[in-house]
Amino acid sequence: MLRIKNINTFYGQVHAIKNVSLHLAEGEVVTLIGANGAGKTTLLNSLSGIVPPRTGQILFNETEINNFAPHKIVRLGVSQVPEGRQVFKPLSVEDNLELGAYLNYGIKGGKAQSKKDMEMVYELFPMLRQRRKQLAGTLSGGEQQMLAIGRALMAKPRLLLLDEPSMGLAPMIVQEILKVIANLSREKKTTILLVEQNARAALKIANRGYVLETGRLILEGTADELLENKDVQRAYLGRDKKEIWER
Description:
This protein is of the alpha/beta class. It has ten helices and ten strands.
């Protein structure tokens, strides 16, 4: 579904992503792990058109999207849940979700489709149904994360990019969020590229993973291979820490 070939992304003169190549097959959950500043968010932003790569190639279902505007990439079926959630705080939960469905605006049956999609989001996150008229800025951090994921799902993505969905959340909420992510892949057949600070939890629900270090991919493998890799354990998994995720 997605193939990235030797992309290089810059912020001005800063070389943030260096000759990165990776791929995702349809229906996979692939996680990208690395330390803060490794370039994980930049890589997602390159895929979604926010910070286009200067060189290299990004193919989504064989269509080259390197220079597509973000809204065109969304229209193709790629949605990103940004780091820090970034919900529209002065608007209600329902209004935030409707904004995620902007692709339906002005098309026949679009309004009915949006209602159907919103119902799907409420089934995934029942708390949002209870809060649907509440201002997004008054939600808890976990509820805002649910809303950010729900807003992205309103565009009916084939590929969902998730940037640190567990950041700042309590362990029980993290479990709930990760279970939903796993279910999206298993039941909705959504392909997912997951950037997650809790590398162990991410690898527990992923098929494969990549390790990014200072803008370069240094390691890749199945989730089980990375979980058993001694260098990955030492650098990212916190071998002596209690797991918050169980199979």
